[in-house]
Write a structure and sequence with these properties.
Elements lengths: L9 H11 L7 E3 L6 E3 L9 E2 L2 E2 L6
Antiparallel strand pairs: 1-2, 3-4
């Protein structure tokens, strides 16, 4: 079985670990009906449309 030749330094270990825990902003898209921003693949909370179809009736 392969074994590392030298001990990996603390800074290298921390650099490797820091890339795994990056936070990313959620992907937002404009609603094709009303132009409101919402998460992808979700029904618009403002007008109730998804993929140019009315899915939920929203009361005014």
């Amino acid at each position: 079985m392969a074994v590392p030749k030298r001990k990996q330094s603390h800074s290298r270990t921390n650099l490797r670990r820091s890339n795994n825990s990056k936070m990313t902003a959620p992907t937002m898209v404009k609603c094709s009906n009303c132009g409101e921003y919402n998460l992808t693949h979700r029904v618009c909370s403002k007008c109730g449309h998804y993929a140019n179809k009315e899915i939920v009736k929203v009361e005014a």
